[in-house]
Structure formats: structure tokens, C-alpha cells
Amino acid sequence: MNVNILKKTGIIFLLLTIISCGSKKYVSYKVKKGDTMENIAQKYNISKGELFKINPGIHRDPPPNTILIVPETEKTQKSYKEDENYEEAKEVEKKVEKIEKEAEEIEKEAEKMRKETKKVNQEAKKVIE
Fold first, then answer.
1. Is 71 left (phi over 0), alpha (psi -120 to 50) or beta?
2. CATH architecture of the domain covering 2-128
3. Per-residue H/E/C for 16-29
4. Taking a C-beta distance cutoff of 8 angstroms, is the pair 16, 103 a contact?
5. Which of 21, 50, 58, 82 has the fewest CB atoms in 10 Å of its CB?
6. Higher model confidence: residue 66 or residue 72?
7. What ranges do the domains of the chain cover?
8. Element (H or E) spanning 68, and its range?
């Protein structure tokens, strides 16, 4: 049971991290030659750390043609329909929404598990005393 709790806790942490990015909408961004995480972050008015946070599989400057998740801006709202990644961006948005819903479910389950664990710990203390 402890292994399952640890796994679920890890999943909850990951999903809560994603949710903590706020209720922003996201679109995809195709990395171009010469792009760095720093200049991409500046372009979308976020910190480099936040850019890494919303792209957890990226640990350094990505090579060209890598697809990143970036916050939607007024500029991307107007132009991303013309972008070749429009359909992909819509899919990413759907996935983010699905993950947010799953995170809510997991958080509810985690709260139940915390209550159950607290109850078991209290019972264990009584038995030990």
C-alpha cells in the first residue's frame, strides 16, 4: 500500500504542478534554429523556469523543430490559426484540460487517502499505548 501511496503522491505532485501554472490557455511553439529557452520565455513574457516547468521533458535549449507548450497571448490568438501547428495546439489544449480534470479527481482521492491514513495512524497509536 505504501508504494501505491508514493506513486499517487508523485502523480498528484506532477499534476498539481501543471495546474499551478494557472488557468492560462496554452498553444504549441515549434522551436526555430537559434532559439533558446531564454528568448522563447521572453517572447511569451514568462520566466525561463516557468517555461521549463510547463515543458517537463525539456532540460536544456531544445533543438530546432521541437514542439514546446507556451502560454497563449493576444498575438498567438490572432495568428496561430494560420500556423501549421494549429491542430496540434488544439490537441495540446484538450490534453491540458483533460489533465486538469484528472488532477482534480486525483486530489479528491488523495484527500480521502490522507483522512484514511490519519485514521489508521490514530488507531495504531491506540494499539501501541
1. beta
2. Roll (3.10)
3. HHHHCCCCCCEEEE
4. yes
5. 82
6. 66
7. 2-128
8. strand 67-71
